[in-house]
Amino acid sequence: MIVVWAQRDTYNVLLDNGVGPEIGLLYVWLIFTPVLLIASWVLEILVDTPAKKFSNEIDVQCRLKRPPVPKTFTDDTEEEVDDSDYYSCWRFSKRIWPIFAMIAWLLFVLITTEIFIRTH
């Protein structure tokens, strides 16, 4: 969606400069395939991974029989965390902070886009 206009413009510029249609298509493919691979990798890191972690945390949080609390190790000592404290709303919110960051980013994009459209 983001790269389509750039691909078409590049293809049209190549055709206008005397490059054949087949070679122009090959150039566009060679230029924009790495761009699409990098963009999909970045989106996997920024969107897919936090969403997976969020759905896993929601699943664990909503279970009637929850798994045992993971043990934390600090300076060669093992620290026990209470089940009720680990599964509290505040600790859950702290564990899923990437989803809040993603929601904030989407709201920022929506608001700035709407402001731009209204003013222009």
Please provide a written account of the structure.
- With 120 residues, this protein is mainly alpha-helical.
- The protein has one domain (4-68, 78-119).
- It is built from five helices and two strands, in the order H-H-E-E-H-H-H.
- The chain has helices at 4-16, 21-62, 83-86, 89-95, 97-119; strands at 72-74, 77-79.
- A two-stranded antiparallel ribbon has the order 1-2.
- A hairpin with a 2-residue loop joins strand 1 (72-74) and strand 2 (77-79).
- The protein is elongated and about 70 Å long.
The low-confidence parts are none
Mean of residue pLDDT?
86
Please outline the major beta sheet: 2 strands, antiparallel
Number of strands: 2
- Gyration radius (Cα, Å) is 24 Å
Helix content: over 70%
